[in-house]
Amino acid sequence: MSSARKTILVIGTYDTKSDELRFLGDCIECQGGATLTMDVSVLGEPAMAVSVSKHEVAAAAGSSIDAAVAAGDENEAMQIMARGAATLTAGLHREGRIDGMIAMGGTMGTDLALDCARALPIGVPKYIVSTVAFSPLIPADRLSADIQMILWAGGLYGLNAICKSSLSQAAGAVLGAARAAVPAQSERPVIGMTSFGSSCLAYMKWLKPELETRGFEVAIFHATGMGGMAFESIAAAAGFAAVMDFAPQELGNWMFGSAVNSGPDRLLNAGRSGIPQIVAPGCMDLIDFVGSQELPARFAGRQFHAHNRLLKSSVLNADERRETAREIGRRLSQSRGPVHFLLPTKGLEEWDRAGGPTHDPEGLAAFLDEARRSIVSPTRITEVNAHINDRVFSDRALELFDAWVSDGTITASARKVA
């Protein structure tokens, strides 16, 4: 942990919220931090000096404040500012000028701030103080994987004792995070793995210690939306030596309208980065839903598993499973690196075993049939006559991994994760 003074980028509309932003910055500085301020307002002039002007923000988007005003539409204008602010945020971090960011706002400011947070890699503190924090207005695919949000209680218009409490806590949180953050750099090459809890998928219990004895570090991502988003973010930055993506179920969730998804690029970024991939269809028979919501009518009457009060699952029908198999094949075919698909023929998650709540042999047969048709060269496919939770599946995955290490496909050099 570095003892150097940490600099926090403070983003907001300095024409209308200068008092609140000044208070936020003062809280950071009185704790020994430094600030770099970015004005993302459009119409008014900032009531205090700023480090990055609104004109610089608009120019970074290839536009101008005059063009934003001339648009005559606040949404279009703010999207110009969002593009510019995100570009500048990423650049400031690359240049080593900031150690974290914090933004504040209502719906407009939050919309922009979400883009700025996504412009920063995992491991860089990113905080948003928002009047709509944790709101269903914010879809999962707008969130960066390690974002932190704090409700801006009582802060819609002007300073008061209640919103000062929110702002001061946020200032302490972002500065403390910047001071405490350990860079996501491993001395060992990192294997990215996706899974669910061991009551559903069990392969990681055998694979993790085996991979560690071979000199690798294993990062296992919980594939319930944000976990898959974090996995894809690191894969996009080429942060893994290899991936064992054995729970790509978020793809099916996204395809069939579940909110429990990680966005449209699931199962794409490792391939785009040329990372060696061993892939399997863990839980691709299920679609997950938010536990507190009613199942959509099209899924009523299907086999069902209530995991807990947060999460529940319904089975996909045969046609839907065929569609997921085709989409998996299509996405893997775009990979720039080697891909080997393991197809466990006796089941894809613990609850689909005979007697389980999601057991559906006809649906499984449809998926297997379509996978054999859709997963084609250069992707290699190997059928494993076992359930995905049987030890023989994990042993086969390890055999493939060892072969790739032996022939140099997977190298032992560590990569920067973020």
What does this structure look like?
The chain is of the alpha/beta class and 418 residues long. It is 37% helix and 17% strand. It has 13 helices and 14 strands. The chain has helices spanning 18-30, 54-60, 65-70, 74-94, 107-118, 161-180, 204-213, 226-236, 249-255, 269-272, 318-332, 361-374, 391-406; strands at residues 7-12, 34-39, 100-105, 126-130, 148-151, 190-195, 217-222, 242-245, 277-279, 286-290, 304-306, 311-315, 339-344, 380-384. The strands form 3 sheets. It has a 6-stranded parallel beta sheet, with helices on both faces. A 5-stranded parallel beta sheet has the order 2-1-3-4-5, with helices on both faces. A 3-stranded antiparallel beta sheet has the order 10-12-11. β13, α12 (361-374) and β14 (380-384) form a beta-alpha-beta unit. α7 (204-213) runs parallel beside α13. The radius of gyration is 24 Å and the shape is elongated. The two termini are 16 Å apart. The mean pLDDT is 93.
